[in-house]
Structures are given as C-alpha cells and as structure tokens.
Amino acid sequence: MNSSTIIYIVLALFVIWMLYRMFAPVKGLVQLRDEPFRKKLDESRHKRLIDVREAHEFKSGHIPGAINIPLSQIGSRASEISKGDDVFLYCQSGMRSKQAAKILLKSGYPEVNNLMGGISSWTGKRIR
C-alpha cells in the first residue's frame, strides 16, 4: 500500500464515523414525527417547547408557545429549562435540534423529544 491509499482509507473512515455520529440513535432522545409530537406536546402538563433556530428564523415563524434558544446558546442557557419539564425541541429540519438534545441529555435531562423533519414537517398552527 502506498501513502495515498492509506490517506484515502483514513479519510473514508473519518467520513463514515462522522455520518454515524450524525445519524446514530441517541439514548434518551425521543424522535417523533409531526402528529405524535403534537399529541405528546398537547398531553404534557409540564412542558418546555424550544425552537433552536437563530433569532431571525424564529421571527419568521414558529410554533405557538415556543421559546427561542438557538443551538449556539443551548449549553449556556440550559438553566432556563427545568429538568422536571418535558422538553420538546425543533429547528428547521431536525438536525440542529438533535444536536441540542445531545447537549441537554449530557447535562442531565432525562428525556428530550425532537420533532423529526423540524418545523418544515409541522402541520399545526404557526405564529408569523
């Protein structure tokens, strides 16, 4: 094997590892599609609905009752979220909210719900 082959193998392994980390299941994360997410959100008595998009995205339209804590601030603002609340996260497509969920789960939140497909898949009301 020459050095360029080794570099390609290492690069391929790195890409595979990154894809695995991006799409692998996360313990404590409940991935829900639109309807089950809305149902669980409606049934929850102590809930915190969080939009992890940036402020300008939030202002362009969000789910009623949501607060805006961008992904970049979720770690520093986690104290605003009670660990006794049912946490519901969403973003535009579901990827940033999954990252935010990982941060919250590592911070000791027992369960976090993520809207699969993000607000793009949301069929309920929106505030614009």
Automatic annotation (TrEMBL):
Domain of life: Bacteria
Protein name: Rhodanese-like domain-containing protein
Lineage: Bacteria, Bacillati, Bacillota, Bacilli, Bacillales
GO molecular function per UniProt: thiosulfate-cyanide sulfurtransferase activity
Species this protein is from: Paenibacillus dendrobii
Keywords: Membrane, Transmembrane, Transmembrane helix
Chain ranges of the Rhodanese domain: 43-124
Annotated transmembrane regions: 6-23
InterPro entries the record matches: GlpE_sulfurtransferase (IPR050229), Rhodanese-like_dom (IPR001763), Rhodanese-like_dom_sf (IPR036873), Thiosulphate_STrfase_CS (IPR001307)
PROSITE patterns membership: RHODANESE_1, RHODANESE_3
